[in-house]
Each structure stands twice: as structure tokens, then as C-alpha cells.
Amino acid sequence: MNTRALILLLIQISVSVFGKINQDSIDSNIVIAKVERKIDIATHLVKTSTLITLENKGSSGIRSFLFSLDPSLKDNLSFLSAVTKENKDDKLDVKETNVAGHGDKRFYRITLPTTLDAGKTVTVDVEAVYAHVLKPYPLEITQAKKQLVVLDTNLYFYSPYVTKSQTTVVTTTNSNIESYTKTKPVTQSDNVITYGPFEEKAPFSESQLRVHEENNSPFLTVTSMERVIEVSLWGNIAVEEHIDMKHTGARLKGPFSRFDYQRQQDGYASIKTFKTSLPASARDVYYRDEIGNISTSNMRELDESVDVELRPRFPLFGGWKTRYFLGYNVPSYEYLYYKGDHYALKLRFVDHIYDDMVIDEVQVKIILPEGSKNIELKVPFDVERRGDEIHYTYLDTLGRPVVVLNKHNLVEQHIQDFELHFTFQKHLLLQEPLLVVGVFYFLFLAVIIYVRLDFAITKDEAKESRMRVSSLIDEVQSAHDRRSALYQSYDDAINKFKSSKDVTAFSASRKKIDADYKQLTQQIQNLQTQLKAEGSEAAEKVAQLQRLDTLYKEQIGLAITAAEKLVSGKLNRQQYLDTQAATAAKCDDTYKEMESLRAAL
């Protein structure tokens, strides 16, 4: 056997032995005297609260016990915590572990605050949150239908120990329960189903618990999220989130009718709006998508937070997706602490995006100042830290270090602070200002030298005239483009007036557009006068462009008059459509002529 093979064999033996040493075993001296289990399915999350009374039947003390996840839920766990009944503020240490002979199960070792002596009992409250457990049934619904979901889980407390007595209470969204498991003893009162007590259940007992209920709560899931935190030692921390969302409830069956949606207020399971909570010091908040700014949001500043009501461009039905960007700034003095050259950033890992949020995957990027070293991370839960990256921005030379963190399956309980420690030499703060000063110094020096040198032999009046004409034509084209954009503004104002019938708002909007239009038209007229003074043939083309614009403006006036008559009832719908078609045809022809003439300038 060669040396390499021997080393590999030793490594395999070490890993095997180490794995066996770290395996837990089930202590038969532990008995669960009583279990009170509560399952809350009132939202799209499944939240469980399990009050466990442990009894030590052995002759020696125990320091920890095993908590096993139900097979129907083990792949959907988002968060797990435990406290004692006597001290709910002090969380117990919870670590995932393995148990010999039970490789198909998922266990957590919960360490007690003190040793549980022989014959004594202790009560521990274990809270867990599971995502994507509730399944829509049926999988597809029409726009006006209500959403029904199914919970399939274990009726009994899934434990590695003998359980003497247990009860299970299921809380649904409302009293509209289609069906539920009738294993006795069972009672139902309004939206609460109570099972048990069940006596003397063996370890890992299983029996189906199925609840089919109406649940129209928002089944909103953040499928992917990128959170970028850029730290500046000049007093600001910029945060931007790129969020992909999906409605993971029952898919929409058939077409979507906005008319029925607004008139009948149906779409019970749809999502119209949601509230995001930002830090109380957040400022310069923006909400946009790939199209541009989304103006349907509202922001309210409270004492402890800044609440932003976000309304997507369209309501979300089952299977529909949306993507948006949310950003803000916070002052660094509230989250960045320092002593000498040592700095510590303490900030939320994620913000509160919406109530009962679920984040399938998040990537947090923390961009530190250029020159930061000795980076150390402290997080309140397990995250995956990938290799640090380098980010370049204005005036950077070596680039800024970026700490990249990844985590899957997050819920509200993960809104906790992380700490990032690093060192930074303060004299490096002068690097960028000195670089700017140097660049401008050499730029001005080059300009001074250049303007003092005259390379021309004679003055070319014709060339200068052509340059002036070219500059004037560019200004005409730019002004015309902005004026052409106002045509669409007129159309938007007319369409909004027809739908809202708000004469005051229409008059105000039209007055603003008219003012802009008049200013641009006068600007083009002045440019035409200057072109004429230069003796350019383009002056006549600009005059023709002005005449065509006048014709287009007349058609807009006819469209406005027709819309006013339609709203006031002086014109029926068919007459309005005929008038609108004729006006639109003339506008299209005139617009094509103007564009052709503009291109010929």
C-alpha cells in the first residue's frame, strides 16, 4: 500500500470514528409525562407550540433531551426554539444531531438550563415554524372562488420517548372547515379542533391528521432575494433589496378580468398590497421595478419603524410572480461602532418584508470600505459564507471587500442582528479626496495649456457657421422629441379623464401639459429664427415641422372636446369611437410626416 492510499484510509477511519462519537442515543430513562401541542394553520405558515413535561425515571441526572421532527414536516422546518416554562426569556441551546439506528429521522438536542435530577420533572416549550406545508386543494381556482388548503401531518406527538398523555389543538383560519380527521376523542368549536387526551403512546407513534379548510390568507413567498448593504465611513449605510415574489397558493384557473375584480371585489386569495417595515432611521426610500418607479406605495414614519405599504403594478393570483427593488439609507452612527481602527457593524440580517413572511433563498452582500482588513463575522444562526468578493465603484483602486452570506428558508424569527468586525486605518479616508483633487488639478492644468496655444492659421467662417447650424439642429431635434413625448401625455390625461371623470384633475393636468407644450414650441420657433439668420436651408424644414405640429395639436383639441362630450353625456359611445378613430388616423399620418421631416434635418 502506497503512502497516499494509507493517508486516505486513515482519514476515512477518523471521519467514521468521529461521526460515531458525535452521535446521540435515546435515553430510555426519559419519559414524557404530558404534551400539549398547538398547531396554528391560520396563515400560510404552520406554527406549532409544544409544551413538553419531561420526567426523569432514572437514577442519575440528565442534561439534555432529544426532540424529533415529524416525518411529514421535517423537510419544511424554518425555525425552531425552546424555552422553559419558568423562564421564557432565556432560550435553550438547540443543536441538530444524529441518533444511531435512526438515520431517516431528524433530531435536535435541547440542552436544559440545569441538570434534571432523578424523579424530577421540567416543562419545556418548543416552538417551530414550517413553510410550504399547507397545500391548496383544489390546485386551481377561478378568480371569484375562495381558496381551500389541506394539512396532512401526524395526529400524535412524534417523540423518541414514551408519552403518557397528550393533546393536540388545531387552530384554523375560520370556522369554514370542509373536513377533518374524526379520530376520537375529538371536539370542534368554531375554528378550533381539539384531539385527545391520548394515553400511553409508544415512541414514534403515527396516525394521519388531515384538515381541509378555507384559507384566504396571502400565500406570498419570496423565492429569491439579494440584499446589498454598502457601508461608508462618511456617515451613511445604503441598503438595497432585489426581491422576486410568487403567489404560491392555488393557481388562477381561466382568464383574469380586471373589470370584475374592481366591480365585485372578488379574488379573495389575491394579494393587492403588503406592508414592509424598515428601520426607524430609514430615509430616501425608493420602490421601483425594471420599468421604473412604482408610485402606488405609501410610507408612514412611526416611532419604532418606517412602514412602507407596497402595491404591485397588478394583483397577484396563484402562480403569478413579481420582481421589485426597495432601497433606503440609514445613518452609520446608529449601526457602526468603532474604537480606534476597530469597527463593528451591527445590522439586521433581513428586514420585515410582510407579515408571516417566507424567504426561500436570500443572499446578503456587505460591501465594506476599501482597505478594510481582519474581517470577522458573528451571526445568531447558521449561514453559508462564501468566499469574499471585490466590488469596484467610483475612485476605487484596489476595490472594496464584499462579504457574501447565503441562507435558505427564512421566516420572521430570523429578523435578528448580525455583527461584522473589521479594521480600517483612518488615514485612508483621505485617499479618494486627494485623488479627486489631483485629477482636477491636472485637468485644469491641461486646459490652461491648451487654450493658450493657437493652432489655427486663418479663421474659417464657413466652418464655424456649419458648426453653429449643426448645434442648432441638434437643439431643434431634442426639443421636438420632448414635445412629441407630450402627445402621449395628452393621451394619458384623456384616458384617465374618461375613466375617473374628474374634471378638476383633468383641467389641472391639461394646464401643466399646455404650459410645457407652449414653452417647447416657442423654443423651436426661436431656433428657427436663428437658423434663418445663418442662411440655412434647414430653417424652411423647421417651419414645415411647426406647421405639421399645429395640425397635430388641432387633432388633440378635437380628441379633448370629444372626451368632454362623452363624459358629460352629449355624445354616445359609438359616436365617440367613430370620432376617436378618425382623429387617431389623422394623428398617425401627421406624426409620420413629422418624424420623416425630423430625420431629414
TrEMBL record:
Residues 1-19 form the signal peptide. The keyword 4Fe-4S does not apply. Keywords: Coiled coil, Endoplasmic reticulum, Membrane, Signal, Transmembrane, Transmembrane helix. It holds the Pfam family Ribophorin_I. It comes from the Eukaryota. It is found in: Endoplasmic reticulum membrane. The chain crosses the membrane at residues 434-453. One of its GO terms (biological process) is protein N-linked glycosylation via asparagine. Residues 510-537 form a coiled coil. GO terms for cellular component: oligosaccharyltransferase complex. Pathway: Protein modification; protein glycosylation. It is a single-pass type I membrane protein. Its main location: endoplasmic reticulum. Belongs to the OST1 family. Component of the oligosaccharyltransferase (OST) complex. Subunit of the oligosaccharyl transferase (OST) complex that catalyzes the initial transfer of a defined glycan (Glc(3)Man(9)GlcNAc(2) in eukaryotes) from the lipid carrier dolichol-pyrophosphate to an asparagine residue within an Asn-X-Ser/Thr consensus motif in nascent polypeptide chains, the first step in protein N-glycosylation. N-glycosylation occurs cotranslationally and the complex associates with the Sec61 complex at the channel-forming translocon complex that mediates protein translocation across the endoplasmic reticulum (ER). All subunits are required for a maximal enzyme activity. This is Dolichyl-diphosphooligosaccharide--protein glycosyltransferase subunit 1. It comes from Biomphalaria pfeifferi (Bloodfluke planorb). The lineage of its organism: Eukaryota, Metazoa, Spiralia, Lophotrochozoa, Mollusca.
